[in-house]
Amino acid sequence: MTRINNAIEKIIQHPKVFGFASLLMRVMISVIFVLSGLGKIFQYSSNAGYMESMGVSSALLPLAILVEFGGGFLVLIGL
Question: Is 76 exposed, middle or buried (0-12, 13-18, 19+ CB in 10 A)?
Fold first, then answer.
């Protein structure tokens, strides 16, 4: 079992593998955020109504869109 763990550790610590895995994770996370932000843009009125029904001012919806869409983009470019 130790040999397998050592082999996996060597593969994970390889700079190219680490770089690719990091890029892949950034892309996957950013897609989730960007799609969520786009969903809020295209379904603006229903999202505003849902927020109001939960006791949150719908005036905060543009901020939520900015955080999700902008944050997803920033994660994608590595900031």
Answer: middle
